[in-house]
Amino acid sequence: MQTTDIENFLNKSDYDVRKTGNARWIDQKCTHDVLCIIADCIDEFIQDDTTKIFTVKDIWNSEYAKDNVIDIFSKPDVNNKKAQNEYDKFFGQPIKLLAYSKILTETKKDNRYIYTINHLELLQYIAMREQNALNFLYLYITKVLKDSGLHAEFDAFFNTQTTNSFYQIKKYFSDFTIKYTKINGGTECGRIFTKILNPLAFKLKKKGTIKGYLSKNTILLSDLQYNRLNWRDELSGKDKALTRNEYKPELAETKTEKMALYAINKAKKAVRKYNDKFNIGLSEIKFITEKVKATQIHHIFPQNEFPTIADFIENLIAITPNQHFSMAHPSNQTRYIDKDFQYICLISKTNTIRESILVKKDDFYHFNDYQYLPNTGLNTDEFSLISNLDFGALLSKIDEFYSPLEENKYISLLPK
Length: 416
Known about the structure:
18 helices, two-stranded antiparallel sheet, 52% helix, mainly alpha, 6 strands, two-stranded antiparallel ribbon
């Protein structure tokens, strides 16, 4: 899904708050990282069944949410009665946003709200990466502001970033919200204002708001996050922090590792679903002798050595059990990566990504993320010098790092 697809979807609806009177089009818990994980929980709950009905409580009581949200976001056990209000906000506010945007369809039955999926592809787009969720938020917030007649005032603030202009836009938004919605307090308006201003400021590389005041510097990604722990940075300082049994939650002893496990498993799930859809579940490495399904999702560059790219979907490739345990890890030595087969994986993955970007134009894979992959795995910066979407140059550079190719024991297995 590309930005134009999201814009086309948003342009079908009128989000004018003056007409709806709905202040909950965005709220305190609607950060991009929370929106991403809640969308993922919904996607896991419905299992591609867009007719399945659910409530907010159904999502927070799901096993998938229990296994991930509690540890990653430091929340109390979902069965703790004292935590019910917190969970209602943490899950409910992003779900209200998804409903207001029309990604979900909301109906009221008796005294409760029930939901169904209206646009599964966009929900899954948001669920896949936090970066996607942030991109959606920026486009969505911009559209709501335009429809509500607020965009010019926000635009004026970003053009003139002074303390005075900050207080003017903050007061303007507060007065607007109190006038057209049921919110009647400036404090609550201020909390919502932050969740609107800062994603825009980050995208525009401008100042925003920190602790209710104009920020001293431009807004950083960390300023937007609900969960500020960066597991990639944490694990980068550890030697082989994750074991090969990384998908066993009981082995993850720290919050950092649990965050990593969630991100990696979600990436694997996305790659498997994508491969099932577009490659009928076969291996991305097209060996004539391999006829069985690709049940294994393999890290091209091992996650224990390269945690910063462990959850990159570009670093994951769908292969068969034989390819995984006999070729990628000879004699099933999972700590060992066969460099000859690693080259084959990179060439095959390049083809998958090229097809995704240039032929399908589905925006599932990102070329710049794929450039970052060999830069990290091969300890270089040469792949950054390649022009955008120049797959020929990228393949040549991969060849250069794995030469001499005639000595590669698997080279004859690649298609011509």
